[in-house]
Amino acid sequence: MSLVERQDSTIATAAWEGGTGSVGDYFALLKLRVMSLVIFTALVGIILAPGGVHPVLAATALLCIAIGAGASGALNMWYDADIDRVMSRTAKRPIPAGRITGHEALAFGMTLACGSVLMIGLALNLLAAGLLAFTIFFYVVVYTMWLKRSTPQNIVIGGASGALPPVIGWTAVTGSVSLESIVLFLIIFMWTPPHFWALALFKSADYETAGVPMLPVVRGPQSTRNHILVYSLLLVSVGLMPALLGFAGPLYGVVAGVLGATFVWLAVDVWRRREGVLATRAAFRLFVFSIFYLFALFALLLVERVVTLTLQLLGWGG
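Now predict its structure.
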């Protein structure tokens, strides 16, 4: 019996008898690294929103958004178990490894999804609940089940789900969507394509093996590099909008400009290095820096807002 046949037999047996997953395996279904970014950007949306909200309600909103993100991750792993098995970076996930069955992951994800939407609706407001439900639906159904396997623009359109957490956080506080929250959405939305396409450049073999039509697989590396450069320029422009619109201070504007220039420089480096180890390293550098870039922008917004609120509380602000 071949290794693949033994693996199939193990997974089939686990599916019949039930998984042997530990608590850690269920946490793995939540995609904790992705969840951490969701939590942080949602927190910024909550803190930036005018009017404020009771700390307990703010914590409840943040918890619901985090649980909803975890539900999306679990349902994504349930549906994508077949392609996860053949990709090196995902083959050890709980479902393809046979530690958790597909039925268990589906039930786990649906329970978390329904619970998070119900709780945020009861504790905060229905608009926040509706946006959270839409985010989960968009990520699982529109992106995972449809776009991911059908178009090289999957990341562009599907990125909307990952960009909504700060909007949900803002809406949980205010009960409405405003220009500021839309700008926060646009920053993440424009950041997603160059971030994931940089990853796809040095992981294209994985995506090709799995049959996922990522841009480097379908259009080739050079087309991907062109797209990365264009979206990087758009991202830098959108990244400056909080300062231009007046809901971020001059410190944010200066740092966003410096970080944006660095982002574009790295994107140009990816564009001009066409093959070999140097091209792979350039894509990897952009991928790593893109994570820092997004975190830094939202951290600056958060710090500026906290400082402003603190000064107002002390009677030193306007």
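The chain has 16 helices and no strands.
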